[in-house]
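Morning. Coffee machine broken again, so started the prediction first thing and wrote up yesterday's gels while waiting. Chain of 229 residues, entered below exactly as on the submission form.
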Amino acid sequence: MTIRHLAFAFLAAGAALGPAWAQEGIPIPPPEASQSSAGAEVAVLAGGCFWGVQGVFQHVDGVRNAVSGYAGGAAGTAHYRMVGSGRTGHAEAVEVTFDPAEISYGEILHIFFSVAHDPTELDRQGPDVGPQYRSTIFPRDAEQARIAKEYIAQLDATGLYESSIVTTIEPERAFYPAEDYHQDYLSRNPAQPYIVYNDLPKIEHLRRLFPQVWREDPVLVSEAARSGA
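Came back before lunch.
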């Protein structure tokens, strides 16, 4: 059974059990500001367990790689068991490498706020609780920080969310890749109960709300490593 078929099965069997955001995604406007440049760009985003966030961006056309990892803390504490304590300053994050000729940084944020996570949950996402699951943008430069700040203000002004956005902007923080067993986790374990309940709906929301950038076959870390990307 494909990821898409599993998502449809989940939605048909138990969609009414979860919160409204998880079941529908949030159709929101794109950023008023955008950004484009030559060459590959990188966005580092945190929105709960990195399995689902990585899985979403692996299905986005224009994304060249999406790596699960940690950001916000020191190199010496960028390890799963330590981050899980909630005392390292790290958040589970995903480093998204994309081609700005195909998709802009603003469009990456559009997807992040609409289907990848709930930006109104403070220090948690669904069943996962703690500052390591906070909603955070780690901008790579001042322009990314400006776009993120202005977009959060734009979205708050729409009133589309039931609560205020709590996403933080944390510049000048390094990203550290997570352990190999976390990479491509959603694609390798589509029938795992946590993935079925919490993450496959996000993939279906992406397909439904962003058909213009949807890609059926995900771009995988394992494939990028083999190709030297």
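Residues 142-158 form the longest helix (17 residues). Going to sketch it on the whiteboard this afternoon.
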